[in-house]
Amino acid sequence: GFVSIEIDPRFVDVNVHPAKAEIRFRNQSQIHDLVRDALREGLRSAGMPEHHASASGLRAERVSEAVTHYLDGRHASGSIPEIPPKTPHSTIFSGRRKTTFTSRPIQPDFSSLQTSFTGYSPLDLPAGEEMLIPLAQVHHSFIIAQSRDGMALVDQHAAHERVLFENLQDMHRAGNIHVQDLLIPEQVDLGPAEGELLSDYLPEMQKLGLLVEHFGGSTFIIKAVPALIVGGDYKRLLIDILDEITVHGTSEKVEELRDTILSTMACHPAIKVNRSLASREMEALLHDLFSCRMPHTCPHGRPTVVRYSMDDIRKMFKRA
Q1: CA atoms within 13 A on the CB side of 260
Q2: Which residues have CB under 8 Å from 237's CB, separation 6+?
Q3: Would you kindly state where each structural domain of the chain is located, as residue ranges?
Q4: Which among 62, 66, 86 has a CA at the least distance from the CA of 74?
Q5: pLDDT tens, 76-115?
Q6: Do the Cβ atoms of 231 and 214 come closer than 8 Å?
Q7: How far apart (Å, rounded) are the C-alpha atoms in residues 308 and 6?
Q8: ∠ CA 255-260-262 to the nearest 5 degrees?
Q9: What are phi and psi of 270, to 5 degrees?
């Protein structure tokens, strides 16, 4: 079914979007209430009782319990294979990092997760890199890993930043940055100076997968973002990018400015501190990190890894 709305044109504002792609009702709450009441009346006339919502919730809960019970039984009998948990960051949990992106999908291929995780071995690391075996996390922020001759502490946020940054770099150079349209575009209100600055850089941002449209005055609409950073705070990202452009100015070469913007884009969706990682996630992150061209620093120059040899550890305990 559908709901047909007839309304006096005086109560519709058609000037909220330059391309007339959106409209706004002058009394949105009233329209909302009218549509809600119409839906209720339609459902009621179809024979749905008033207490349907609560009854549906109860039935849904019972169905959920039944399904859970059934699946538990199947798992216990071994008829259903264990599936690794899905994680929100596509770049580090989809297997080996690649430097070509001509066929990278917008969404990660979770069907290969189990093979990817179980396939990690010392031979998988790039030549010249010492194998690190993740053991645990410190305050859900740093990964403790064992090496052949000691141990290492890995900053999980800085490491993931490096992985995302190089992925974005490679996609941009290949002219193949996949973008994700936002279901609900985000509106950003800026000051006059920021708005003018952003207007100058809109074409460059679009090349980097960030589609922003001028909405009138100093208001802009974020309509699409690189698929690699879906789930971030896009308003904050845009403001941070403008801050970076303001600090570095137009004196930088275009390539350097692009890297500055890409590093800011990589920072926002990167794994944060105080986030617990499963052992498989830590393995995947270390593997992707050491598949990077510059694995030892994040895009802003901070170290990703601090190593301690066995000699260093012995000296700390006065065993040298």
Answers
A1: 20
A2: 225, 229, 264, 265, 268
A3: 9-45, 86-320
A4: 66
A5: 555 444 434 433 344 444 333 433 333 333 333 333 333 3
A6: no
A7: 72
A8: 90
A9: -60, 150
